[in-house]
Amino acid sequence: MVNQKGGVGKTTTAVNVATAIAVAGKKVLLIDLDSQGNATTAFGIPPEAREKTSYDVMVEDAMLDEAIMKTEVPNLSILPAIIDLSACDVQLASKIGREFILQKKFAALKQKFDYVFIDCPPSLGLLTINAMTAANYAMIPLQCEFYSLEGLSYLLNTVKLVQDNLNDKLDIGGIILTMYDRRNKLTQDVEAEIITHFRDKLFKSYIPRNIKLSEAPSHGKPGIIYDHRSSGAQAYMLLAREILKRFG
Ligand code: ATP
Ligand code: MG
Description:
The protein is of the alpha/beta class. Helices cover 42% and strands 12% of the residues.
């Protein structure tokens, strides 16, 4: 889940889609690659319970399988994050092969999971580059706002740079409209623009603005478990189904 714009629903989407796909019986890993650790907190895992984290994997010599934890959701594991990760860009600045750390460590673990989701931080720094170098697909949560399209073209440029220089397997997995409000004229304009340029990349399940999704993390539960009947939960379950259909 990648978008350098902050607060567009990357974490909420990663947490709920990963949960829905795990509930559907697939083995899923969620990698929290954001120093805010929001995806980790969303599963009710307090900082003191995060023994080894994505920081140890990225900066120290921990392997992924030492750091991965089980969540309360069957079939769903998480690589937790802590605040130390915010120093990662600086600490790795002179390391040779720094873009490939996650890809290399991940290779040993690939067979164990059907789906791996990476929650990226709101930047196109080294952590996000590592995520895109390790991934097959860039999934782009997008809020329909005035600056969204400008941000999107910049993001797509970065994806292209990663494709050309670091990971030729990377593809755009799709665009996910989040916090969607049909009554808002600007939302409709941005949506129309996205349809014009990216029709085949746009997921049909739009995620509505829904208070239950934003309440869920404070209860340490993914939205689709906190209130599975809410409009937000329903939308994420449909999106998960669409993802399973698109990627098998
Ligand atoms: P960051 O860039 O800081 O990592 P993000 O892109 O991961 O942010 P989220 O943390 O998922 O975005 O969402 C930002 C805020 O909006 C959070 O408080 C979240 O609970 C809320 N939120 C996300 N999606 C929805 C939604 N569909 N309806 C209502 N609130 C939402
Ligand atoms: Mg986030």
